Amino acid sequence: MSEKSASVSVLGLGPMGQSMVKAFLEAGVEVTVWNRSTAKVDAMVALGAKRADTVAEALDANKVSVLSLTHYDAMYDVLGQAIDHLPGKVIANLSSDSPEKARAGAKWVREHGAEFFSGGVMSAGDNIAHPASYIFYSGPEAVFDAHAELLRPLSPQEYLGADDGLAQVFYQALLTIFHPWLLAFDQATAVIAKSGHDIAQFVPFAVRASEAFPYFMDEFSKANQNGGWADLASLKMMDAGAQHIIDASEEVGVDAGLSHLAQSYWRKALAASEAAGEPVSTYALMLGKAS
Length: 291
Prior knowledge:
Elements: E1 7-11, H1 15-26, E2 30-34, H2 38-46, E3 50-51, H3 55-61, E4 64-67, H4 72-79, E5 90-93, H5 99-111, E6 115-122, E7 134-138, H6 141-151, E8 157-161, H7 166-194, H8 199-210, H9 213-224, H10 232-251, H11 257-276, H12 282-287
Parallel strand pairs: 1-2, 1-4, 2-3, 4-5, 5-6, 7-8
Antiparallel strand pairs: 6-7
Helix pairs in contact: 10-11
C-alpha cells in the first residue's frame, strides 16, 4: 500500500465504526472521521484520527470513504449533505440493510458520480479482530480489487460477486440463523435457571451439542437443494418434540413463544402434507410452494 493510498475516511462512529477506525489506525492507515456526535469524534481523534467537521470535509480528505451507519436511509441523509463532493470518490458502505436497499443505494451513489461497493460485517459483536470475524463484499470486482488492500485491516475479506445486494443477501441470511439462536439460548438458559440449576453447568453441553450443527447444515442443505426434508413420521416427531419443549419451559414459568412459533411450522407442514397427499417440507413452505 503506497503512502498516498494508506488513508481513508470513516463516516459513522457507532461501536462498529469505532472498531474500524481503531483497526485502521493500528495498521498505520491515516483515518479521517465524521459523526453527528462530536463526543465520538473526540474519542477517535484522541487515538490519532483526524477530525472532519462536515461530511464534505470527510469526503474531500480521501478518495475512499467507509460508511458504518444504522441503515441505508442514513446514507442518503449523510451523503446528501455533500452531494457535490461525491464525483470521483469511492463509497464502501458497510452498513446493514436489505439487498434491494443496497442495490438502490449503489445506483444513487453512482448517479452522483462516485464508485460504490457494499459490505456485510460478520463479526463477534463489534470485535472485528476476533478470529471468527470477516466481511462479505459485493459490487463491481474491479472497484473492490482496487481498494481491497486498503480495507484489509478491518477483517478477512470474502468477495462474493458483482451484484451490489449480494453481500447483504449472505449477511442477512446468516443473521436469520443467528437471531433465533440468541433467543433459543436465552430460553434454554432460563429453563435451567428457573428449574433451580446452574447455567454454568449447562453451557459446556450446549457447546458440545453445537458441534453437530455443521453435520445438520450439510444434510439439510442437500435436502433443500432437492425440495427440502419431508417425512410424515419425522414431521410428527418434531411437532411432538416442540410440545415437550413448550411444556418444559412453561412448567417453570419461562416464555415459550419461540417454541410455539417453531411448532406452528411443523403443524403447517403436516397440514400441507395432508392436503397434498404427500410430505411437504418446511423449506417448501418458506419458499411459498405450499400453502
